[in-house]
Specification:
Length: about 400
């Protein structure tokens, strides 16, 4: 049986095949729209989220043994930032390789095995690379990672440990993204990049969990946006929860981009219907700096149709929000993830209901790390230590 994809921008339907996921009409990524098979039920006693939500997934059979324990992440109330309890954080940073990507990767390897593909690949410099490599190792699949020229050793380490084949490629990243699908077709490698429809099926489970944890839909969901895959997956999750009668309304989704590279937010502000490729400036938020987002037009359309918003925040805003989350709530997340708090502080929706910030990645994974000179600490020998501490504590 071939799965059918639907393009939500122009309405076309087409068959799903690995490496062939874009609408032949308008080039936006297709979505599995008929993934609700048979009876819609949540198996609340099941061990893994995959089993719990199996009837919502486009797989012949879920294979929980390929899980690394992804999902079931905490939904924390940020009580120090909002004592009223209306501000919450969904901690995707607690997934096995420390980002939301694991929810997609666990499904990618299952689809690859189901369809008999021996290898998976991805174009990424960071979180997706390590996540794909980890799940490929678990599933016994070959893995090819295409990384941008100049990727740091630190960024590569979290992938190389899983023993994928890594190739550093010079040139335009957008072009490499498109080229990967042609390579995949000719070499028999399933390139499951950021907007792959099966990945998005994993991201939708985050929305399911939020609804079940809250007992209703949140009023607002803040999510960092780069390619747009995560935003679309979450939106689809809320839509399916709504259609299945678990929630009564859709939340307002707020997509957040880095000011230095915000093609979708710019198109939204200018009230355009299409996202144009931009010339980005430098930003510390590498994971959300896609100048030519493959799901840009789709995000624009979904956000617009549901009263959603797309906004951008500066690097300074993100770093300030990252500190706030750490110092006030004990959470260490990537600046990209902290962009959600920065956006919330800019357009506070607290008085209008419950807001959920999606914490997409763990702080230690960030490409941007402060130098030692900017870390607040003291150094000395034991007598120095005693004098120092006496002076500090006497003052109090
Ligand atoms: C930490 C983090 N947040 C957000 C994103 C953006 O996700 P998407 O490309 O699906 O829009 C990424 C993508 O790599 C990421 O690594
Ligand atoms: Zn289309």
């Amino acid at each position: 049986m071939t799965d059918c994809l639907k393009c939500l921008v122009c309405g076309r339907e087409f068959d799903f095949r690995p490496n062939d996921i874009f609408c032949p009409g308008c080039q936006q990524p297709g979505l599995f729209l008929n993934s609700i098979s048979g009876q819609i039920k949540i198996n609340r006693r099941a061990g893994t989220p995959l089993e719990k939500f199996a009837s919502f997934l486009p797989l012949e059979k879920v294979r929980p043994e390929l899980s690394l324990g992804e999902g079931e992440t905490p939904l924390l109330s940020l009580v120090n930032l909002d004592p009223e309890g209306r501000l919450l954080a969904k901690l995707e940073s607690t997934n096995p390789t420390l980002s939301f990507k694991d929810r997609g990767s666990v499904l990618v390897v299952q689809k690859a095995l189901e369809l008999g593909w021996p290898a998976v690949g991805t174009v990424s410099t960071g979180n997706m690379a390590s996540s794909t490599a980890a799940y490929a190792a678990r599933a016994g699949l070959d893995c090819l990672l295409l990384v941008k020229k100049g990727t740091s050793a630190a960024a590569l380490l979290s992938s190389s440990v899983f023993n994928p084949r890594i190739v550093e490629v010079a040139g335009d990243y957008g072009q490499l993204f498109r080229e990967s699908y042609e390579l995949g077709k000719s070499l028999g490698i399933y390139f499951a990049n950021s907007v792959d429809p099966i990945r998005l099926e994993g991201y939708k489970l985050t929305a399911f969990e939020i609804c079940l944890q809250l007992g209703k839909a949140p009023d607002f969901v803040y999510v960092p946006v780069s390619s747009g895959g995560h935003f679309v997956g979450l939106w689809k999750g809320f839509l399916e929860m709504n259609r299945a009668g678990f929630i009564q309304k859709m939340p307002v989704m707020v997509g957040v981009q880095a000011a230095a590279c915000a093609p979708i937010a710019q198109a939204f502000t200018d009230q355009r219907e299409r996202v144009d490729k931009i010339q980005p400036s430098e930003t510390i938020a590498h994971s959300i700096s896609n100048a030519d987002p493959p799901a840009g037009n789709l995000v624009l359309k979904l956000a617009g149709a549901n009263n959603g918003r797309l906004t951008s925040v500066t690097d300074e805003d993100m770093l300030r929000a990252q500190k706030e989350l750490a110092m006030k709530e004990g959470l260490f997340v990537q600046p990209e993830s902290a962009s959600t708090l920065a956006a919330y502080l800019k357009l506070p929706t607290g008085s209008e209901g419950t807001s959920v910030l999606i914490m997409t990645g763990q702080g230690l994974k960030a490409a941007h790390q402060p130098g030692l000179e900017s870390i607040d600490y003291q150094a000395g020998d034991i007598p120095d230590l005693k004098n120092y501490l006496r002076s500090v504590y006497r003052q109090k």
